[in-house]
Inverse folding.
């Protein structure tokens, strides 16, 4: 869980540099998929979790992109880190 949250925060930095929510969400989904396979999950289960995490993270990164330079950005940053628990 902690490594995923750290990866999310690293991807927030990437989002600020690239302004591409799809890229960040795709990288996060791939990492979740690989972690799912490493911990001994089956392929289909890891794929389903990666798809759900990818969708949630795309929404998260898109919202961060739209609320940049506002107070809402900080709230989304903190609350959105809960995606790392999925």
């Amino acid at each position: 869980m902690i490594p995923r949250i750290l990866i999310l925060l690293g991807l927030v930095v990437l989002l600020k540099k690239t302004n591409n929510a799809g890229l960040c969400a795709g990288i996060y989904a791939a990492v979740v998929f690989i972690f799912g396979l490493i911990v001994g999950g089956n392929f289909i289960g890891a794929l389903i979790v990666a798809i759900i995490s990818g969708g949630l993270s795309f929404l998260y990164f898109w919202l961060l992109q739209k609320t940049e330079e506002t107070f809402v950005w900080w709230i989304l940053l903190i609350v959105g880190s809960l995606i790392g628990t999925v």
Observations:
- Residues 2-81 form one domain.
